[in-house]
Amino acid sequence: MTRDSRFVLILLAVAMVLFFFGLGDMALTDPDETFYAQTAREMINAGEWITPTIFGSPQFEKPVFYYWLVAASYGVFGINEFAARFPSALFGIAGVIGVYFLGRLFFSPLCGFFSGLILATCVQYIVLSRACVTDMVLAVFILFCLLFFLLGWTTGKRAHYLISSVMAALAVMTKGPIGLFIPGAVVILYVIFSRQWKGLRSIPAGWCVLVFLAVCLPWYLAVTRVHGSAFIGEFFGFQNVTRFLKPEHRIGISPFYYIPVIIGGFFPWSLFLPLGAWALYKEREGACRVKAHRAFFVIWFLAVFLFFSVSRTKLVTYIFPLFPVMAVVTGRFWERFAKSGGEDRSLRRYMNISYYIFAVSGFLALAGIYLFVRHEYAQALAGVALTEAVFAVGLLLSLLLFLRGRKGLSFLSIVSAVMLLSVPLVRFVLPVIEEFESSKAVSCRVKELSTAAEAVGGESDTRRGIAFYTGRIDIEDIHSYREMNDFISRKGRVWGIVKRKHYDKLRSARPAEISKPVFQAGEKVVFTNRPFSMEQPGERS
Asked: How far apart (Å, rounded) are the C-alpha atoms in residues 417 and 396?
């Protein structure tokens, strides 16, 4: 077995444990996971493969490709949580392998191996590999687009450029123009700053454009033909232009919003990134197989970071396409340290500083998480304590090995600690979190108690989950206090699912018309507007 094969098999094993263990155990969370899961379900039920729909109506928030992936997964595994998340987990594995080959291309197989392990074990990568959202798929397509561009750039093989074009087109089919803008900006700026003009001759530009259009243009033409200006205005106008120019959420106004996102999302490796980047900057140019590699890394980082920092609408997942390049930079740092015999004093000093900051920050983070959970999810405290104990033991072992000069084992101890903590996290923590972040329990209760003729309503952020778990697309929006009042004033029985604080306000104003809580899970309450008994729906008069 070759070294490449061994490294890839180990990375596959690590990624499969992290991304697939208990993947379907936790209910889908509101509002994002249920949005994509419900849209794919409605497309299947309606036999509609061009127009994404939710609540029976067209929605143009994202292009269609991710819904196709989820729908295909439903076809294989059935409509359930595992199937909804399967595409993200599968692409998560692909991303880890892609980063291995990226690190291998730039430096060495060992660098690729370290980079793959780093990517697989950072917080946000694990979360998005286990979530029914588009971000993982987009980031992996961008990664492979840039990887195959570099392969074409270094080998001159035209086939690599064509594959790169396919990846860009699929990124555009996943999340729109940003799928072309990010890799396109990186490539153009890299060519300009590296001044490798001769390399342009090897790019079959015409064929690349044709391949790109052949992959993504048919769907855009088809959906525009069906919906015309409604699609163009909503998708291109609002979802891409307006959201860039105007904030959609209250958070994220600060231009420094993504700095703590990187620190937390790339943890536990984020503390090694700053000095790892500096060590890479100081490294001699000939150590890399790709010319002007520093320019490529910097451009990739800044193209994503600055674009989304300037954007008025910000979400923590937007800069996720940064993670592969950060993994390679950090992987190179660890590779050089593991292979060095201590001769490079600067490198040793950089790693010592980074590691001790990491160790202190790790224990502080454990304390902070414990305090947060005690306040927000007290029922999960025992599970969190067990999970943190597992990581703390791994951290202590890693520190001991680091102090004894066992560099590679120190690194692997961190990786192992992250893998092991997934067991208590999935088994003891996530089931408690589910009650607060999912509508499954309350929705299933309403499904048991209601009849098809009785209206069901929910707030905007839980309405999608209610639709998914009740199997109904006629869930009414009762987000505002006025809508709740109008809803309960109807002559027939209605069922509502709202946050506890909103229910208390409503019942204090109209105690005679609203039942006591029929059921409660987390902070969500099921109520009805008529006297209620625990008879089965078919037995009620």
From this structure: 10
Q: Is residue 152 part of a domain?
A: yes
Tokens representing 52 are 């994404």
Residue 244 CA to residue 312 CA, distance in Å, equals 5
Which two structure tokens, joined as six digits, stand for 127? Answer: 């979360």
**Closest Cα to residue 269, out of 69, 121, 443?**
121
Q: Is the pTM of this model over 0.85?
A: yes
> Which residues, 6 or more positions from 507, have their beta carbon under 8 angstroms from its beta carbon?
514, 527
82 closest CA partner among 23, 10, 145: 23
Mode of pairing for the β-strands spanning 476-477 and 519-521: unpaired
- Reading the block at residue 322, the tokens are 């940064």
Domains of the chain: total: 3
Domain hosting residue 68, numbered range: 3-247+254-339
- Reduced to 3 states, what is the DSSP secondary structure of residue 496? strand
Give the domain-ending residue among 435, 456, 491.
Answer: 435
What pairing do the DSSP bridges indicate for beta strands 524-528 and 519-521?
antiparallel
Kindly give the pairing relationship between strand 53-54 and strand 57-58.
antiparallel
The residues near 237 (Cβ < 8 Å, ≥ 6 apart) are none
pLDDT digits (tens, 9 = 90+) for 10-49: 999 999 999 999 999 999 999 999 999 999 999 999 999 9
Which residue type sits at 445? R
pLDDT tens-digit series, residues 231-289:
898 888 878 888 777 776 666 577 889 999 999 999 999 999 999 999 888 887 666 66
